[in-house]
């Protein structure tokens, strides 16, 4: 058998394990969801070995989707870490066999009156018999040639954990900004930041009347409160609504004409009419998509009445990425 065929067989075995587990889902899953959703404390996830590693991932997924959670190694729990569990918590215990060191925690958890949700391979195991809720993954054949290395069973555990965490996540009805709060760093955080968090505003947002000259518009453009100006100015009418946009790129192109009166011309003659805009409630990713797609360096931010409240500059996005 060649390597590619072996890989396909392993993938098929893992898919088969998930299909079999899917058929075992029952109202017990509803009970587990309600226990976790209504938990007044934290979801303490525990296990050992490969199941323990999967438990760490599940705990991280719960925490990042709004369910307070932490990880507790089942062996370390017997040497003091059991203090991580408090009344009001829920314990999520992972063990394929249901006979690992996890079961040695059960008497203490009973004394704490903490409900236990088991993710395990058999309802007849010690862990299952002493848990309030059992999420059965079934008697799973592992994918290795000896049928011993945790593979299909750990895949089933991680998918069961995802099903739990993401079902509860749906119940919370989060908005993108709620999710972004728990993911402030990296690419994920940048994608979910709002325009209002990265735009220049107040004195850093150049705004001028549309009836000024090019010279006056340039003075406003360069007079911001930052060492570097955004290189653009929003032009407004008598009601303060955006009617045009003038950039340093527009000025450079204007100077190429060589007219001696360039600086004294009305900016309304040379500005961009009906410029691209974005709102401060939009995601920053949308603003930078505008910058990229239209090959522009700035985009004005307007409120619901069309008044400029900020400006997004491509340089600010580079600062966020750093």
What's a concise summary of this model?
This protein is an alpha/beta fold. It has helices spanning about 5-25, 25-35, 50-65, 75, 105-110, 125-130, 150-170, 175-180, 185-190, 195-200, 215-220, 250-255, 285-295, 315-320; strands spanning about 45, 70-75, 90-95, 115-120, 135, 205-210, 230-235, 240-245, 270-275, 280, 300, 310-315.
Description:
This protein is α/β, with parallel strands linked by helices. The protein has 2 domains: 172 residues, Glucose-6-phosphate isomerase like protein, domain 1 (Rossmann fold), CATH 3.40.50.10490; 127 residues, CBS-domain, CATH 3.10.580. It has 14 helices and 12 strands. Strands 2-1-3-4-5 form a 5-stranded parallel beta sheet. Strands 6-7-8-9 form a 4-stranded mixed beta sheet. It has a 3-stranded mixed beta sheet with strand order 10-11-12. Helix 2 crosses helix 7. The longest helix has 22 residues. The radius of gyration is 30 Å and the shape is elongated. It starts with a helix and ends with a helix. The relative contact order is 0.10. The mean pLDDT is 90.
Characteristics of this structure?
elongated, 4-stranded mixed beta sheet, 14 helices, Rossmann fold, 17% strand, CBS-domain, 5-stranded parallel beta sheet, 2 domains, alpha/beta, 322 residues
């Amino acid at each position: 058998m060649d390597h590619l065929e072996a890989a396909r067989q392993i993938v098929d075995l893992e898919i088969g394990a998930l299909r079999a587990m899917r058929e075992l889902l029952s109202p017990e899953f509803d009970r587990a969801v309600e226990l976790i959703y209504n938990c007044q404390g934290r979801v303490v996830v525990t296990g050992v070995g490969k199941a323990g590693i999967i438990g760490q991932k599940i705990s991280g997924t719960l925490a990042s989707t709004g369910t307070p959670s932490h990880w507790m190694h089942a062996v370390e729990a017997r040497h003091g870490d059991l203090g991580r569990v408090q009344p009001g918590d829920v314990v999520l215990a992972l063990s394929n066999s249901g006979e690992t060191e996890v079961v040695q925690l059960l008497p203490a958890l009973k004394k704490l009156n903490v409900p236990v949700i088991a993710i395990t391979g058999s309802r007849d195991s010690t862990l299952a018999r002493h848990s309030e809720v059992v999420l059965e993954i079934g008697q799973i054949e592992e994918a290795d040639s000896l049928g011993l290395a945790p593979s299909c069973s750990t895949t089933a555990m991680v998918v069961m954990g995802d099903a739990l965490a993401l079902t509860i996540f749906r119940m919370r009805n989060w908005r993108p900004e709620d999710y972004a709060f728990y993911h402030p760093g990296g690419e994920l955080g940048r994608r979910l930041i709002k325009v209002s968090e990265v735009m220049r505003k107040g004195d850093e947002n150049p705004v001028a009347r549309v009836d000024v000259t090019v010279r006056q518009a340039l003075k406003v453009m360069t007079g911001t409160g930052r060492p570097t100006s955004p290189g653009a100015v929003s032009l407004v009418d008598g009601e303060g609504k955006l009617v045009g946009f003038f950039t340093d790129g527009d000025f450079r192109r204007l100077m190429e004409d060589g007219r001696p009166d360039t600086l004294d011309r009305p900016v309304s003659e040379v500005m961009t009419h009906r410029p691209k805009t974005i709102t401060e409630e939009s995601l920053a990713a949308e603003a930078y998509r505008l910058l990229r797609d239209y090959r522009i360096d700035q985009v004005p931010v307007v409120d619901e009445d069309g008044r400029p409240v900020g400006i997004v500059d491509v340089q600010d996005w580079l600062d966020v990425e750093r």
